[in-house]
């Protein structure tokens, strides 16, 4: 779950909002962490107790609701995948100076090959792990050499000068929105970690996953903050590239491009596969053609990106859209937690119900404000 969250959208969103809010972005990170924990802890716990997948639980709450949620998750996954391809294009641009659309098309070809051949997928997974470690080390290096104002960041984390609702909903959507939190919960089921005897382990894992992803976000936040407080203007076309090139020169830029492309490539395959599984789970006919649907999913994502362009804006929009799906998913899980026919004699902790309800209502309200006030500005 943590590695799924740390993708191109995660990196782009953190960079863009740090430049916009400066040290006050620490407050956004803090609020998003609390919302992430409240959402994921509840969702994973109900999946564990019922030993059912999210869309199956939703259908038990209200017949047909599971299908609607599956469609919503797939739509959010499509938005994520368009953004992932945009991130891949940004990676190619950093490495070779290529147009982002060309980089996205090349990445789509790689993604389809990896999906079709398991050996290629296994090899890419191994490479991605090492490149993920490289990203952490490279970002930590930038955070050190850029000498960010850590004291100011700590102060503004609790006493912000600026606040951006869209930043909050985007970060939450990029960490636990859409398919991401379901994918983590479903992986636990696949691993046989379910039932009441596993509740402690599942609850601990749900929080740990958020904290791991958030630790990387804090490091990236400090790295970007250290650059922008020096007066460096980040490129609107590829803001992350400016950060790494300023701190680590042309070599840092090339390494960043490689890592971003790798993260984007694996995210394209993972998001497409996971999103499609939500659709095919209700139809044996679609299940038989899953591979073709996944490939089509990738091709449609590529077509939309090449037509629309604007990879940075799409990466931010993907997180915002998936943040809008979260209240529906979380609200459904909370209702299921109090239905005897679904959970039996299990008693969901009152404090978790209250916590989850506040998160669901809060993200719903933030999402409405974002739709009304912020998203149109992205394309103004």
Task: Give a structural overview.
The chain has one domain: Amino acid/polyamine transporter I, CATH 1.20.1740.10. The relative contact order is 0.21. It contains 17 helices and no strands. It is globular. The chain has helices spanning 2-5, 8-21, 25-50, 54-61, 65-96, 100-116, 118-145, 150-158, 165-176, 179-190, 199-228, 239-280, 284-288, 290-308, 311-336, 340-343, 350-378. It is an all-alpha fold and 380 residues long. α3 packs antiparallel against α11 and α7 runs antiparallel to α12. The mean pLDDT is 85. GO terms for molecular function: metal ion transmembrane transporter activity. It is found in: Membrane. This is Divalent metal cation transporter.
Structure, briefly:
This protein is mostly helical.
Total tally of structural domains: 1
Give the count of helical stretches: 17
User: Which oligomeric state applies?
Assistant: single chain
Strand content: under 5%
| Cα-based radius of gyration, to the nearest Å | 20 Å
Output the helix-strand order.
HHHHHHHHHHHHHHHHH
Taking the sheet with the most strands, its summary is: none
* End-to-end C-alpha gap: 34 Å
- Extract low-pLDDT stretches: none
Pfam families: Nramp (PF01566)
Subcellular location: Membrane
GO cellular component, one term: membrane
Membrane topology: Multi-pass membrane protein
List the helices and strands and how they pair.
Blueprint: H1 2-5, H2 8-21, H3 25-50, H4 54-61, H5 65-96, H6 100-116, H7 118-145, H8 150-158, H9 165-176, H10 179-190, H11 199-228, H12 239-280, H13 284-288, H14 290-308, H15 311-336, H16 340-343, H17 350-378
Helix pairs in contact: 2-9, 2-11, 2-12, 2-15, 3-8, 3-9, 3-10, 3-11, 3-15, 3-17, 4-5, 4-15, 5-6, 5-12, 5-14, 5-15, 6-7, 6-12, 6-14, 7-11, 7-12, 9-15, 9-17, 11-12, 12-14, 15-17
